[in-house]
Amino acid sequence: MKQNFTVRKGALDGVETFLCVARRRSFRRAAAALGVTTSAVSQAVRALEARVGAALFVRTTRSVGLTEVGQRFLERAAPAFDELVAASEAARDLGRRPTGLLRLSVPRAVVPLILEPVIGSFCEAYPEIELEIAASDEMVDLATGGFDAGIRMGEFIAPDMVAVRLTPPFPFVVVGSPDYLRPRQRPERIDDLRGHACLRLRRSNGAIAPWRFADGGKTVEAIVSGPLIAHDYSTLVGAAMQGVGLAQAPHPLAHAPIADGRLQVLLAPFAVTTPGVFLYHSGKRQVLPKLRAFIEHVRHQGADAPRDGTIARRSRRLEGADRS
Description:
Layout: H1 15-24, H2 27-34, H3 38-52, E1 57-59, E2 64-66, H4 68-96, E3 100-106, H5 110-125, E4 129-135, H6 142-145, E5 149-153, E6 162-165, E7 170-176, H7 178-181, E8 198-201, E9 211-215, E10 218-222, E11 229-230, H8 233-241, E12 246-250, H9 251-259, E13 264-266, E14 272-274, E15 277-281, H10 289-304, H11 311-314, E16 320-321
Helix pairs in contact: 1-2, 1-3, 1-4, 2-3, 5-10
């Protein structure tokens, strides 16, 4: 049989007053410390004694002492009450300034794009915040996992979350190395991929992701095959640079090797565009200063970074977007 545990209403009433009197051995001095009348202190103590069922103080015209019951009550109640006050102060502190543990759930591909450029400066700017990054491609429930926020591409964010844009939209591109392409015919149409080694991504649910393209205003999926399956885009891009095959990946992740010629973009007219990367959380009322500080820091770093960097560092259009 399930036992019902409840805290009796008013169980803590008068405890602070009792402790104040016990520590000062004076009703008058306790009243002054609490900012109330001596009569109010006496009434609070009498009410507490009535609930306890025994006298807590020995009162004379000249002094106030503790009874045996009062002494035992003091020994147990004082540390417990101090812990309650400390807990309240700690909670209030978290709500007033950027401090505490900030836990973020992010996909692995986002770490080099969004987080690596700002981790150092953020930790330096906010030394009282402990930043914990859980890099995983699995979709997690923020509340159940104990996370303050997550970072994902826009299409994967639940509609009841509040989303803050971190990057503008960007395309998914097909890339290949010059060494891979040199002895082969470059694909000009989506169907041409059948003759190529295509590197694939296995999603967190175990399924292998098809390659997605935009064709005639519609999004189409191509089932491709090749010698490598990986669980993150960084591995696919690295393998493509080694000439293992073609990869489809977020353009920001392949930006550097494309810019220096290690990778070439293919099938550009068919590239599908994703809404971009967003930070998301469960609601404005639950945004503590530590999370607000991180959001503003990422915005500031993104706005001040040069335009020719990665998309996470070059965006000047960082903006908030509420989803309800």
